[in-house]
Amino acid sequence: MASLMSTLMPSIGRRCWPALLVLCLSPALAASAPAQLPDTIAQRVAACTACHGKQGRASSDGFYPRIAGKPEGYLFNQLTNFRDGHRQYPLMTYLLDHLSDAYLHEIAAYFSQQHPPYPAPQTTDATPAVLERGRNLVMNGDGSKKIPACIACHGQALTGVAPGIPGLIGLPRDYINSQFGAWRNGVRKAKAPDCMAQITQRLSREDINAASSWLAAQTVPPGAAPATAVTVKLPLSCGSVAE
Amino acid sequence: MKRLLLSLLLLAIAVPAVIVGPQFIDHEDESDTPALSTNAVSADQQIIRGAYLARAGDCMACHTARGGAAYAGGRAIPTPFGTLYAPNITADKETGLGNWSAKDFWRALHQGKSKDGSFLYPAFPYPNYTKVTRADSDALFAYLQTVAPVRQASQPHDLRFPYNYRILLAGWRVLYFTPGAYAPDDKQSVEWNRGAYLVQGLGHCSACHTTRNAFGASVAKSDLAGGLIPIMNWYAPSLTSDAEAGLGKWDNAHIAALLKTGVSPRSTVFGPMAEVVSQSLQHLNDSDIQAMAVYLKSLPQTDAPPALDTAQPDQANAGRILQAGSKIYEQHCAECHQANGQGITPAYPPMSGNRALTMGSAVNPIRMVLNGGFPPSTAGNPRPYGMPPFGQALSDQEVAAVVSYIRNSWDNRAGFVSPQEVNRYRSIPLD
Lengths: 243, 431
Description:
The complex is a heterodimer. Chain A has twelve helices and two strands, in the order αααααααααβαααβ.
């Protein structure tokens, strides 16, 4: 194999094959127009939008969540959680490993200010009974299991509350389900007291599926943005939200 | 017959004893006494000096778990022999170094032995640290004694049989370890010697940049000649080969920029080296960085062509692969790295002539295409431009084509990459 290389490589080096002619010419063509580097945060975070979509609008396959328009504090907390091992997604940890808090604040601020349109809601094959159970959990909770309503924290419009609480509509069902799975298994953690971890322990699989099915089927109203509240009165205390 | 058996038994005991025994003896040499100069240095200055040296040694990288308390240990260090866990080195008396003396600490650095005399595993790079001076060792110790104590028992190592028997290290040490001091080269400048002291000693560059043999020892004759980091599967390039990352033809300023800021007009750090810049090198002062650059540039250079470790396509197939790779490059890479492979430096490194891409092992460019990455945030480059991961967008065949194209365009000539090789690196751990 070494001898094959020594016959192959010099032949590329000495002359351009017809098939490579275009490659050999291209440097000369490109050299005429000096490349300009956009000094923008959008350009710097191309590594993020490769998966999370342009402006962070989410991927079309429903796997990578939307990050556009989420509250800045929430995004910053997630970035540092991935970096410091409190959330588990190896590629995220790898990418964020050596980025400073200051830079992560800037990245979080950038995506929180993006408001690209939402895609149409996912089609659902959940039964009307399941969707009704989901709607009821989201809007009213379940007092018998001490489960607060989602809207009690995530905003009446479910678009989140700045700076720390994320919106829930516009998220794919698979993403919501997998986050509950991660809380249940203890691999997604927030600052103590970890309110979502506590709530997850009270939810059955059926509850989670009902809530995620209903949430993913909702149409996001135009101009949806996180609510702003001076103080948040939460039904239980959450370490990641300043009260 | 009985006598023969007895003789064999005695031999079986005596031979290992001759090997092992001397390893237990502490080599009391001149440098084993505290340096006189430490008396002249105030305690505060010594601690500040120690904090700086802890950066130079990158102690934190291993002795701090992700998201954990500083120096409280717990980071898993995967090796072919099993997993080692870096111990707690905070000032806690029960679980850290709170009950150690400066002499105990010196013995660990200089002789690779714990406070109780047991042998330390060489994942703790004492073959390098043995060159650290007693004064620097004392300063490091003084600093570590000021680190907030954390009560956290060090996790026991998880090594396979027989590597879990520390006593076996006696044999390893006979073969691969001699306590020593850095011997200045009088023919070289003070600056060169300072650089050599840092690179060979605290910097422990050879821990990655030298191939380890089957016994996990860095092979002295190939010092800084490059090597695949076991388990982590990043290739630490040769610093002595112009075909790899030898620095003989680099400007000193570019070497210094790469070490201190993570980016340079010639190349960008990534993978484990991004961590080294982030945690260690960016915190060193300009004169030490410059000294390291001077020393690294002076290393004897070889121009040995890299060995190819995969089968190569025939000429017709090679043409097809390069054409496919060219299309992918134009679509996904050229916007930043440019059609002419010159990049937009230092944000986007050049492809043409960038030896990180053309080494015998193609693991680094394959992993960069699959996973992308950010250089570290440093004072000199606080908001780095990132490279997108393409593992989710490109098939194994497409990654192989574009990496082969990059390795064989412009000034680059290196082996082609197969889809199977790409696939192998999809599943390796990223952390």
